[in-house]
């Protein structure tokens, strides 16, 4: 075969079949009212092969742009002028336009659970390292939840009640309907484990984990994995 023919021939596997087409890059929309933050996020994501398809400086623009561009993930600031990040998250998730990963600062703990109830797949601090941010975007795009442990501790502490001895929390609606396997799945969600780690722990496949997660969300009436974990934070699952 001539060099020209070899150059034009499709690449093949060693067994003779064609190589699979490369996966398309993840597509992300940035929503933050500070241009410098959007620019920094764009540089980090694009340096790791993630495509930034658009930006928004407020929640209303985030909703419009998400509907028009259909990204895989929206990186959502929670405090923005006009329509805030929580309201925008509720609209985007409700329309099944994209997954939402909320970004927060230490002084925004009161918004964290509001964002989770609105359907955010998780949240990170804006001080998160670049590699952790990229990994979080990929996990959320793949159907996992992401909870920054530093924010989780602060938010839970802020929401914690002083309970008398022997206090038994009200049962979460739907908990009694969970199967034994679904309770194991929920316990793993509460630990913040990815689908792959849950599958390895329980000795089942990732698609089976996804099926169980979907069932847990439906039975609990939860908008996301993070919401389910928050609902079950006081529930004994063993």
TrEMBL record:
Region spans: Disordered: 1-20
InterPro entries attached to this UniProt entry: CheY-like_superfamily, NreC/VraR/RcsB-like_REC, Sig_transdc_resp-reg_receiver, Tscrpt_reg_LuxR_C, WalR-like
Keywords, sorted A to Z: DNA-binding, Phosphoprotein, Transcription, Transcription regulation
Gene3D superfamilies: 3.40.50.2300
Modified positions (4-aspartylphosphate) in chain numbering: 77
MF terms in GO: DNA binding
Domain Response regulatory intervals: 27-141
One GO BP: regulation of DNA-templated transcription
Domain HTH luxR-type: 171-236
Domain of life: Bacteria
Protein name: Two-component system response regulator
Organism, as annotated: Leucobacter massiliensis
């Amino acid at each position: 075969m001539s060099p020209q023919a070899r150059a034009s021939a499709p690449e093949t596997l060693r067994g003779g079949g064609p190589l699979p087409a490369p996966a398309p890059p993840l597509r992300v929309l940035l929503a933050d009212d500070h241009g410098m933050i959007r620019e920094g996020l764009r540089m980090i994501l694009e340096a790791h092969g993630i495509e930034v398809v658009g930006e928004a400086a407020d929640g209303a623009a985030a909703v419009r742009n998400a509907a028009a561009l259909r990204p895989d993930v929206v990186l959502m600031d929670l405090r923005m002028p006009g329509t805030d990040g929580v309201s925008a998250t509720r609209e985007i998730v409700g329309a099944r336009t994209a997954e939402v990963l909320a970004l927060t600062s230490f002084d925004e703990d009161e918004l964290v659970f509001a964002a989770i109830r609105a359907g955010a797949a998780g949240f990170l601090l804006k001080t998160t390292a670049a590699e952790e941010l990229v990994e979080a975007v990929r996990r959320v795009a793949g159907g996992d939840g992401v909870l920054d442990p530093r924010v989780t501790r602060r938010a839970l502490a802020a929401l914690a009640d002083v309970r008398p001895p022997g206090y038994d929390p009200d049962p979460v609606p739907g908990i009694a309907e969970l199967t034994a396997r679904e309770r194991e799945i929920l316990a793993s969600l509460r630990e913040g484990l990815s689908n792959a780690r849950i599958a390895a722990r329980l000795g089942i496949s990732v698609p089976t984990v996804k099926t169980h997660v979907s069932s847990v969300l439906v039975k609990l009436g939860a908008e996301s994995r993070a919401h389910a974990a928050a609902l079950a934070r006081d529930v004994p699952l063993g």
